[in-house]
Amino acid sequence: MSRTTLPLTPRPAFAVRTHCPYCAFQCGVLMGEGDGQPDRVMGDPHFPVNNGQLCVKGWTSHTLLRHPRRLTTPLVRDNLNEPFRSASWDAALDLVADRVAAIRAEHSPEAIGVFGSGALTNEKTYLLGKFARVAVGTPHIDYNGRYCMSSAAAAQNRAFGLDRGLPFPLADIEHAEVVWLAGSNAADTLPPIMQWFDRQKANGGRLIVSDPRRTPTARAADLFLQLTPGSDLALANGLLAVAVEEGLIDGEYIAARTNGFDAVRRAVLQYHPARVERLTGIPESQLRTAARWLASAKSTMILSGRGAEQHSKGVDAVHAHINLLLALGKVGKSFSGYGCLTGQGNGQGGREHGQKADQLPGYRFIEVDAHREAVAEVWGVDPASLPRKGRSAFEMLDSIGPLSPSPLGGEGWGGGYETSISRVRHTASVKPTPHPNPPPQGGREPEANPPPLGGREPSSGIRALFVMGSNVAVASPDMGRVESRLRALDFLAVCDSFENETTALAHVILPVYQWAEEEGTTTNLEGRVIRRRITAKPPTGVRGDIDVLRELATRLGVGDKFEFYSPRDVFDELRRATAGAPADYSGITYERIDAEDGVFWPCPAEDHAGTPRLFAKRFHHPDGRARFFPVEHRPAGEEPDESYPIYFTTGRYKEHYNSGAQTRLVAKLNNARPNPMLQIHPRLARRHGIVSGNAVVLESRRGKAEFVAELTADVRPDTVFAPIHWGGKQAANLLTNPALDPVSRMPEFKLAAVRIAAVRRTP
Question: pTM of this prediction?
Answer without folding.
Answer: 0.92
